[in-house]
Each structure stands twice: as structure tokens, then as C-alpha cells.
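agent> Task received from the user: take the single chain below, predict its 3D structure, and emit C-alpha cells. No templates, no multimer pairing.
agent> Plan: (1) validate residues, (2) run structure prediction, (3) serialize to C-alpha cells, (4) report one or two observations.
agent> Step 1 OK, no nonstandard residues flagged.
tool_call: predict_structure(input=
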Amino acid sequence: MKIKPFLTEQFFAHYEFTATHVLASSDCETTSIAELLAISGGSLDEFGAIKLGYTETQGHPEYRRLAAQLYDNVVADDVVILTSPVEGIYLTMQALIDAGDEVVALGPAYDALHHVAEHLCGEFQNWQLVPTATGWEMDLDRLSSLVNSQTRLIIVNFPHNPTGYQPTCSELEQLVGIARDNDCWLFCDEIYRGLETGFEQQATLPSVADLYEKAIVLNGLSKTYGLPGLRAGWLVARDAKIRQELIGWKHYTTICPAAPTEYLAIQALSVRERLAERSRKLVSSNLAICTEFMNQRRELFRWRAPLAGSTAFVEIDVDQLGSHQGRAFANTTDYCHDLAQNHGVLLLPGECLGGSGRFARVGLGRAAFPAALAAWETTLPPLDAGR
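)
tool_result: status=success, residues=387
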């Protein structure tokens, strides 16, 4: 049985490095190796002296120690270092899921969170966030109806990509309670954790790793810390048996982390709050600009401002935009292809993430966001056209 196409990466492969204005990126503004080392107190000489031999499969002890500091009930032995954050999704699904298992996954979502599980399990349930007039809601009653004693795994992502949704502490505890009552595993992608921003200054949620003994948590340096080129990430699994199964599957993928990446990841984690604060300020500034832009264009867009993370999911009136350009767009996939090909502006269609064809993802973490938004605006009807 073949796995479904990875639509997000396929779409980015077409345009990410050729589009003039990238508005869809989920990561935050990055830095150079030299800049990172200057911030952390490391040195290029020290980096250059690294031996390019094999490393420990579970990861460097100092790397795991620093990662464990992000949690309250986690120790270094609970951490498995990855060669790429997405590897953690693959390892977890392979370790947990058999052909007859049932899986429930929150959507819309990054393709890998759904497709690997769906490829392996017997029954896959897509549990969608619910759009409201001004935001998004998590339907816990719906989740309760989907989960039962046969459910092996619940998959979630908080802060949520692409919507920017963040549950309350009470809602998160209810979610954990549903998993515990049904004795199923809970996988939470927390790679945007620490990017709580916006006008209400949301607090950072407790990690699911601290709340539930049958949790597996994914995190890394790509989003909050703005270092996607490092391909640095980790899994947290407090259950020793499942942790060994994760490591067993790692023997069949990358075997061990890359030594240069481990060194740089240790440097980054030593100054993690400084990197995260830089990203939060940038996202907050871009969010204010985007909110003003969307509020001025209510005839074209329905704006649901994100509560956390570095992405937003915008509902677009493609019929109106098509009329302005003298053509018809069937959905946002059609529109986003046209926008990239003819205007050099990159948005990500909602359908790539398993969402509706009325939505597209906007990324708020890049320094060039204001210029990219201005380039998008030049393709739209004049502000007074619909007034």
C-alpha cells in the first residue's frame, strides 16, 4: 500500500526557492552559524575541531540534558535525539501502530502527522478543528465520540499549525483525560511551543509530556528557535519500553544524530530563551501588521487571528479575487499556484494540509513579512473597490 503524497512539501518544492515573496513559511527568521556561536559563546574553531565519527544513538548526554530542562517531569534519559524533527513522527508511528489499530488525529495538520499513521493503521479518524466567527474551537465532545477502548493513539499539535489555535489549560487537561480514560497513547507535536503571542499574551501551556504518562512529545529547533537548517529535534517518552522501541526504529532510519548538528543544537539550547524571544517579537510585530491588513480587506478575507505559533489560516474569497483578475479560481490551490507563478508570492493552499479549499496558510515568522504582504496587496482589488 502506497502512502499519500506529501502535498505541502511538493508545493514548496515548486516555489519555495524561486518565489520572490514567501508568505507561507512556518519557521521563524534564522541566523548564521557565526551569529549563533557569537550569541552562545561557542567558537568556529571549536566547531571545526568536531570529529565526524558516529555519535550515540539516543543523542549526546548534554543535548538531552538541555532538552529535558524544557519540561517539569522529564529527565535526560527520557529524551531521544533525532536527525530531523519529522523523523520523530515516523519513529513514533512505526513504534506504536499495527495494521489493526485505530487512530484519531486533529486536523488540519502537517501532512506527516496524518499520512504516516493512516498508512499504518486499520482505521483513521480525522478530528477537525471547528472554525468560529473569530477563531477556532476544539470539539472535545466529538473526540469523546471517536475514541474508545480500541483506539491506540490520539495525535495533536499545539500550538497548532496552520490555524494558530491554542487550547486552554482546562481543555488540554480534558484532552489528556480522554486519552487516559481510554488507555491510549497521546502524541503531541509541540514544535511551536514557546511561540505564544498575540494581543491577549497567551501563556505557555504545560507540555503533554508533563501531564500524561503515555504521552510522546515532539519538539525541535526549527520553528520557535528559527534554526530549521540544523534539522535538530527530539522526542520525549517517559515510558522506558516505548522509548526503546523508538530507538529500535531509529536503528533502521538514521542510526544516530549528526555530530556537527549536535554541537550547534547544544549551543542553541544554551541560549534558547534569547532565540525564542527574538522570534516572539517578530511574530507579534507581523501579527499586528497582518491583522490590520485583514481587517481592511474583510470583503476578501475572513481573519481568525492565531493565539500562538507562527502561522495563521486565512479564509479567502477566491471568487472575488478571480473576478478581479478576469479568471475563475476553483479553490485556493488554484489561486496559490497562480499567485506564485504570475506574481512571485507564495501562500500555502489549505488543501495541502487536509483543510478546506477556501483556506490558505500565512507564515508570520520572517523578517521579510511586511514586504511580502505588500507584494500580495498589489495583486488585490483597490481598497475602495468593494466599498
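agent> Step 4: summary for the user.
The chain has two domains: 7-31+274-377, 33-271.
agent> Done.
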